[in-house]
């Protein structure tokens, strides 16, 4: 029997468990379209992403795949066109200007690739860390030094950025980002301008913030040293999450990495481009359900309609 209108209304009003439940970061079907001079660029095309509280995650992807756009949305700098973006239960599409300011000051900390962009050149390292606390009206004596010490740059407290190496500047930048005890740290290519040894020190500082302060850390990176040492690496392709690499220790204590394709809630997945190229798959594939896997074959040769 068909349901009546009132039954359908009753069904629709039953609250469904939200996607992602209590995940720290929830992106559901996130879309960001840029319009410039009448041309539309779809930078995020229905991206789904869940990150749990306390995770240390790397995001990787080719240039133009949408990584910075995603980070700008999560940092509260940019507002997506559609979909859901929630951090720590706060809805990033529906925030008032006042909430957005508080979010940027207190909930999230940000580290940019360009070392010079993270610090004010005329303040010492310690003053740089104290500044966000003062702006939030929360200055606490000694906290700046504690943070600089934790990240291994306590000796630089009295120096200006120009007197510090690139790696030291980035570690001070992490202290600045941590100043107001944020729940989440976002870092866009934080080791992009550094050599591998210095880059390892900066990554260690981020890991320390994650392990010792319990902060969720999301790093956009091209640096294998970073992406191969986090617990989870998320690959983005064409504005969607396409793959995930999970790392765990096996019984002998060796680090094992397993790569997965991401299956979204309606069943879409992206086949790796090199797999598709190898079998010349285009447009159509044949699927077959087996007892423990699904087979994917190139389409059969199509009959030619040309005479
Ligand atoms: N402000 C903007 N106006 C118009 N198009 C934009 C803007 N910002 C980004 N885009 C476009 O959106 C797409 C995604 O860009 P995004 O910067 O997020 O990629 P990315 O993965 O961070 O790249 P990269 O690794 O080079 O930084 C690209 O096609 C880019 O040209």
From TrEMBL:
The keyword ATP-binding applies. PROSITE patterns: ABC_TRANSPORTER_1, ABC_TRANSPORTER_2. The keyword ATP-binding applies. It comes from the Bacteria. One of its GO terms (molecular function) is ATP hydrolysis activity. GO terms for cellular component: membrane protein complex; plasma membrane. It holds the Pfam family ABC_tran. Keywords: ATP-binding, Nucleotide-binding, Transport. Residues 25-263 form the ABC transporter domain. This is ABC transporter ATP-binding protein. It comes from Nonomuraea cavernae.
